[in-house]
Amino acid sequence: MAWTKYQLFLAGLMLVTGSINTLSAKWADNFVAPGCGGSQEHSFQHPFLQAVGMFLGEFSCLAAFYLLRCRAARHPDTSADPQQPFNPLLFLPPALCDMTGTSIMYVALNMTSASSFQMLRGAVIIFTGLFSVAFLGRRLALSQWLGILATIAGLVVVGLADLLSKHDSQHKLSEVITGDLLIIMAQIIVSIQMVLEEKFVYKHNVHPLRAVGTEGLFGFVILSLLLIPMYYIPAGSFSGNPRGTLEDALDAFCQVGRQPLIALALLGNISSIAFFNFAGISVTKELSATTRMVLDSLRTVVIWALSLALGWEAFHPLQILGFLILLAGTALYNGLHRPLLARLSRGRPPAEEGERERLLGGSRTAINNAS
């Protein structure tokens, strides 16, 4: 079936905004500007403040939800599923996981390349599968176990490529290794978030935009308050500001004032996350979750290509092999091989409903997983 113009628009919007989200965060890290009090020029390394901006973007999804609800009130649709009453505090535990995982990933992005950051996020499949078996009582198919093994192999190859790549003064080998490990550790937290959402949130039939926006609200408020104690907590080598603390929001605002392009990068990060979530949810509804997974894989290619073109990282052929293995693992885990096998055997294609979004049994991702 041919795609409509609207479906093509949604697919393009998801691909573009998803790429902008990671690239704008990395772009901000590349800027050098003086901070407050006449401090020397230094890189813009403020991962927790960037995470606050991301949650602000997610929070804006609530506005989109209420706009859609007002529109639906004027044009009622009797076929739509009714929204069940729920306690918003149900979103607090997954929001805390999202806040922790996102913050760790922004710290890691300061230490490693954008393409490795995007590829290593594929580790979420491993922990999601294991946690779904342990805590939700799911039984994984053989293809899903093979997908997990392929993902592990792909992660090893990507990590090896990082070890063998040339490293500049900004990204030393020890920092790259630490960043890669932090990304994988963050995926454990993201997997816990997905289990919590599956167990406590989705049974209430909450609109995805409302879910994203509510988690964004919790994340924005809590992490904004945590910026105050972070201003005083020493962080040693993990600190990217002259004071050596976990986060220095004042220093970040001073750098933005002296280098306005940083504000443009932050605005790109905030706005792209909102449009990316909307586009991702719409792609799943209009097309399929498999299409959403394929577009997310294409996003990795776009980020990788642009990072190479901009000179942000050096090319290493092992990354191609690692990406292909990770892509095969993701395809196996999400059942993308089934339509291909059905065509090869000239059998009946699988029902389209089987491609619709699922959380842990297949191609579902966390409701706001877009970093």
Automatic annotation (TrEMBL):
It is found in: Membrane; Mitochondrion. The keyword rRNA-binding does not apply. Residues 1-18 form the signal peptide. Pfam families: SLC35F. Keywords: Membrane, Mitochondrion, Signal, Transmembrane, Transmembrane helix, Transport. It is a multi-pass membrane protein. The chain crosses the membrane at residues 48-68, 89-108, 120-138, 145-164, 176-196, 216-233, 261-281, 293-312, 318-336. InterPro entries: EmrE-like (IPR037185), SLC35_F1/F2/F6 (IPR009262), UCP036436 (IPR012404). Residues 352-371 are annotated as: Disordered. Interacts with SLC25A5. Belongs to the SLC35F solute transporter family. May play a role as a nucleotide-sugar transporter. This is Solute carrier family 35 member F6. It comes from Rangifer tarandus platyrhynchus (Svalbard reindeer).
